[in-house]
Write a structure and sequence with these properties.
One of its GO terms (biological process) is DNA-templated transcription. It comes from Pseudomonas mangiferae. The protein is α+β, with helices and mostly antiparallel strands. The protein folds into 3 domains: about 80 residues, Winged helix-like DNA-binding domain superfamily/Winged helix DNA-binding domain (Arc Repressor Mutant, subunit A), CATH 1.10.10; about 80 residues, D-Maltodextrin-Binding Protein, domain 2 (3-Layer(aba) Sandwich); about 100 residues, D-Maltodextrin-Binding Protein, domain 2. It is built from 9 helices and 14 strands. Strands 4-3-5-14-6 form a 5-stranded mixed β-sheet, covered by helices on one side. β1 and β2 form a beta hairpin. It is rod-shaped, with a radius of gyration of 32 Å.
């Protein structure tokens, strides 16, 4: 490290032309600058400067050495400029983790304009329906849904998404008409979980009556998209985020069961490893907040 400091002093002396001018630029005394040059020459065992009473000139070795020192200084300046850009503007690689259900329009609509507006920003996406370690995977920002475990992570609540009980019309056609939540126990349950049994809480929108059912899953899956395909294939009923099945409901591939009975909404959160987020993270949070709340 001392040698690097001496290289900086030497390059500054060459650029400024005198020891005194270099000392002023570096915030050092002229004698300290002279001492650093002498130690640099002693360490390299090469004379770098011709000294006269009126000026300094480079030796042949000094000229070659200066070119290398100038390259080091330029790299240092570029690194410093890069840090300033990271501090003030959304640049660099943005690493985002999200549930698989967000892999379609929601993230595209939010982040494509951000990338177009900031050419220095790149994006890497990780889609998992299970939580991953944000620190280990160097994730800048994660979208998480449902109940959040206590942790040192910083969570920002974006809003809530309605959940719907869904099934394929062909599956329902083979069953008796549904009028009460208890009848769900007689149907095939498809669950986004790691457990075979799942608790289903329902509340009647009119009377306020509440029902809690313990559902035994026929299909257990850790991927919401795969679960949706099983539901569309007529394998049973599942809980689906309303925002993700609008197209399927509109064209009749899926049907809502017991629409007067409501499920607790699904909380949507943005989670970051630290509160003092970099500009790229702050810009992404605002873009996601605007788009996800709009949807």
């Amino acid at each position: 490290m001392q040698q690097l400091n001496r290289m900086v002093v030497f390059a500054t002396v060459v650029e400024k032309g005198t020891m005194a001018a270099a000392a002023e630029a570096l915030g050092m005394s002229a004698s300290a600058v002279s001492q650093q040059i002498r130690r640099l020459e002693a360490g390299t065992q090469v004379s770098l400067l011709h000294r006269t009473t009126r000026k300094l000139t480079l030796t042949e070795a000094g000229a070659a050495f200066y070119r290398s020192c100038a390259q080091v200084l330029e790299l240092a300046r570029q690194a410093e400029q890069r840090l300033a850009e990271l501090r003030d503007a959304p640049v660099g690689e943005l690493r985002i983790a999200a549930p698989v259900g967000f892999s379609g329009r929601p993230l595209t609509d939010a982040l494509a304009p951000l990338l177009q507006a900031h050419p220095g920003l790149s994006l890497r996406l990780f889609f998992h329906d299970e939580s991953i370690d944000l620190i280990e995977q160097r994730i800048d920002l994660a979208i998480r849904v449902g109940h959040l475990e206590d942790s040192s992570l910083v969570a920002r609540h974006l809003g809530d998404s309605p959940l719907l009980l869904c099934a394929a019309p062909a599956y329902l056609a083979r069953r008796a008409p549904l009028r009460r939540p208890e009848q769900l126990l007689e149907l095939d349950w498809l669950s986004l979980s790691q457990e075979r049994f799942h608790t289903l809480d329902l509340r009647h929108a009119g009377s306020g009556e509440q029902q809690r059912l313990r559902m035994e899953s026929r299909v257990v899956c850790n991927n919401i998209v795969s679960l949706r395909h099983f539901t569309q294939a007529g394998m049973g009923i599942s809980v689906q985020p309303e925002a993700e099945v609008r197209a399927e409901l509109a064209d009749g591939r899926l049907q809502v069961l017991l629409p007067e009975w409501k499920l607790p909404p699904l909380g949507i959160y943005i989670v970051t490893p630290r509160r003092d987020a970099q500009p790229k993270v702050r810009y992404a949070i605002e873009a996601l907040r605007h788009t996800l709340l709009r949807d």
